[in-house]
Design goal:
Strand content: 5-15%
Largest sheet: 7 strands, mixed
Strand order of the largest sheet: 1-7-6-5-4-2-3
CATH class of the largest domain: Alpha Beta
CATH topology of the largest domain: Aspartate Aminotransferase, domain 2
Number of strands: 12
Distance between the termini: 26 Å
Shape: globular
Structural class: alpha/beta
Number of helices: 17
Length: 489
Amino acid sequence: MNREYYGKLIFELSREGRKGYKLPKHAVEGSLSDIPSTLMRESAPQLPEVDEPTLVRHYTNLSTNNFGVDTGFYPLGSCTMKYNPKINEEVAAMPAMQKLHPYQPEATVQGALEAYHTLQAALAEIGGMSEFTLNPFAGAHGELTGLMVIRAYHESRGDAKRTKVIVPDSAHGTNPASAAVAGLKVVEVKSLPDGTIDVDALRPLLDDTVAAVMMTNPNTVGIFESRIPEIAQMAHDAGALMYYDGANLNPMVGVARPGDMGFDVMHINLHKTFSTPHGGGGPGSGPVGVRKGLEKFLPNPRVIKRDDGSFALTTNDDALGSISVTLGNFAVEMKALSYILSLGNEGLKNVGPLATLNANYIKSSLNHVYKLPIDRICKHEFVFDGLADKSTGVTTLDVAKRLLDYGYHAPTIYFPLLFHESLMIEPTETESKETLDEFISVMAKIAHEASATPEVVKTAPHNTPISRPDDTAAALNQIVTYADLTQNA
């Protein structure tokens, strides 16, 4: 491919008068003079003028620069990026799914309501909860909804002084943000060197002003929080509820249920655990589940099954209100339901163990060339603290950039903040041993390069359209149009 030609912007390929179409003369009566001047443009839009082959080749070649789970291994720790089975897409694209309208009469959407209710029940079984709502549009939206459920619960008992949420210092960044948006004050609790909650530091923080304790399990460094039952008992004795951030639920599927551990409210990221696409920021889905006794606080509307076997939408006055226009992202929910039904009980039981096996295999294969700050069995993900040999000055960022040259998407770096050069890797259960072995080989090769030819790594990537942009300058001086580009040339 001629990258000098196809690497140009579409405006740079434009030639005045060149077109890729020919339209017949319009048959509409009247003329442009009949259109009110207030609706007319003052000047013609500045659009590129290209022929059809140039247009098609330009965007087709641009698409080859995209990286996705369909093109290669995605070792992105902290954000499960598993393969999305195509049958899920086919189900969601069925005309019977696509052509539904959210305000159709109940009698005409019984199948959709049954599918919705079936997914609710499946997630409740997997999470050990009493009931789920699928209304939230994303994981962070689910966090906010769950915290609003907790507020509604305390307010229903007249306990308005519970305005604090305890959040570990290793929590996902959305946890404190969601608590703040919910009108709650964040109280941070320190973690031990292995990333788990410091229970002794937590104990004095639990008083009658605490509404909830938010936890992620496994935690952000991929370690199972073994003292959850003790923490849950402490929180409940203080009158607080336990909130489970389900972002790391993947290794727990088929093995352990948050509800059985003592959690009262949880959310699940369907785009992580249940294989629906991340979608470049959306659409997502963040269902929220609650233990028995909290169902009435879930947002309106709720889908219920009547005694006669039919399904209906209901609302109630105890609910926290409505958090979405209808019932969330229905197509996304159907992809997750397809995934669950395709795997079945036996298949789901293999998800957690295989994800855990793959993560430990990579960790054990590379811990001699990368620094392993927590030398324990991990779950779905683990964290290196940069290279074991730091003498040549090659950083985690350099390693991540060099991975691009070998055709891999870089994993999460510099998070969590517990370590100076965090490099978080999560393979998921969908990757084969051959794929993992290839990745391990490349990571080991980069570690060797860092020692033998460090400048090669420090100046990477070498094979991408751009190398190392100035991130700060790009954020402060954004070039989002062709006019911006020409002005900054």
